[in-house]
Design goal:
Distance between the termini: 71 Å
Oligomer: single chain
Shape: globular
Number of strands: 13
Strand content: 15-25%
Largest sheet: 5 strands, mixed, barrel
Radius of gyration: 23 Å
Structural class: alpha+beta
Number of helices: 9
Length: about 400
């Protein structure tokens, strides 16, 4: 009997030890992670943060200090694979080694994360999936809410999110996470609580736009609609004036494969909110790299998909064949350049207005020729720093 009691006590202690190994998550804040990401890699953490589901952002910003003072001031948010959640970015591009990638890969072994689809999570996901639907039709990626919550999950980090290239510019090493692999940290969500929504104020731009902006059929399209956004984007690009910007726009839409072409670029109409694999893909690519584009058409009504294709295509070119000055440029520079290209189909297509997430009026056909550049630059600068959480 005594031996049984001792054995029972041992098993009880051993069981408690097993329970203790499932350690409580470490409390961290966004700015600390962004400052020193490498030391948090693989840790289960708890973060009080504000989540933004923007155009090409799905990020956690610090709830009290959203400007941490770094080039990227947020943590990319991902759901575990198979979560089938609704919220996420509108349009992103990620780079992945192809099956024929010739470089050396170090694939991390990461603990599995299971998403707790609790009542709190369902509220969180539903709020972030709601678009802003008042005012201008072309409110590109505008979300109705941002949501502050307590987030628990696994942090994946890299010391340097820069994509590595050889002397010829070819990609030989991959960067971080999220859009353009530019984020040094990613939280793979396990649970969410303390959900507090805040409706984004679009009242100023709504009062100006009044919901009457319409992208017209492209010249030469014969009045065709937008059933094939790729074809419509090509037609629109073909009517742009020659010059550096017009050339960039044409190259952006030429980045996508045509017919059965396999050029390493894929477009998936999905939310793009789940964790992406670290290892190589199953397909080959001309340069050994796959460029995976995700577009959420539920938040790209009507002709917005066409405009988004210009942005995403330019993203692909930023990664695949960057201009010499942009090869190592910070994300804010690439995003600035891409939004300039994205404005072209809006202007050429006869759009009266275009609003960026957060309520920044980026295009107004009523602006005079003298004030357009200043107003567009000011709106883009504020958007990139305040909403996209980027800086130099």
């Amino acid at each position: 009997m005594k031996r049984s009691v001792v054995l029972f006590g041992f098993l009880l202690a051993f069981g408690c030890g097993l329970h203790a190994q499932a350690a409580a998550p470490v409390d961290v804040n966004v700015c600390d992670v962004v400052k020193s990401p490498a030391k948090y890699d693989g840790q289960m953490v708890r973060i009080k943060g504000t989540v933004v589901a923007g155009f090409d952002e799905f990020v956690i910003k610090d709830a009290t200090d959203p400007n941490c003072g770094f080039q990227v001031n947020g943590i990319w948010l991902s759901y575990p694979q198979g979560s089938k959640a609704k919220s996420g970015p509108v349009a992103i591009v990620t780079a992945q080694p192809a099956h024929n990638f010739a470089g050396t890969l170090k694939t991390a072994t990461r603990a599995a994360v299971t998403l707790d689809k609790s009542k709190d999570f369902k509220q969180f996901d539903s709020l972030l999936a709601q678009p802003h639907q008042k005012g201008a039709d072309m409110c590109l990626g505008c979300a109705r809410y941002e949501v502050t919550a307590t987030l628990v999950g696994r942090l994946d980090t890299v010391a340097d999110a820069t994509i590595k290239r050889d002397a010829s510019g070819k990609i030989v090493g991959f960067g971080g996470f999220g859009n353009l692999n530019a984020y040094p940290a990613r939280l793979v969500l396990e649970s969410v609580s303390d959900v507090t929504p805040k409706e984004v104020d679009y009242s100023k731009t709504d009062a100006i736009t009044k919901g009457d902006s319409v992208l017209t059929p492209t010249p030469g399209s014969g009045g065709a609609g937008f059933d094939d956004p790729f074809a419509a984007a090509v037609r629109m690009a073909s009517h742009m004036n020659a010059g550096a910007l017009g050339d960039d726009a044409q190259k952006a839409v030429a980045a996508f494969p045509t017919g059965k072409q396999q050029n390493g670029v894929s477009v998936v109409f999905a939310e793009g909110n789940e964790v992406t694999p670290d290892g190589p893909g199953a397909k080959d690519s001309p340069d050994g790299v796959l460029f995976n584009c995700f577009l959420n058409r539920d938040r790209l009504p009507g002709p917005s998909t066409i405009v988004a294709l210009f942005h995403v295509g330019q993203h692909v070119n930023d990664l695949r064949s960057p201009k010499p000055d942009d090869a190592d440029a910070p994300l804010i520079v690439l995003e600035n350049n891409d939004w300039v290209v994205t404005s072209l189909p809006v202007i050429i297509g006869g759009q009266k207005f275009m609003t960026l997430p957060g309520g920044y009026l980026f295009w107004n056909a009523a602006w005079s020729a003298d004030e357009r550049q200043d107003k567009m630059e000011a709106a883009l600068k504020d958007y990139l720093s305040n909403e996209a959480l980027l800086s130099r």
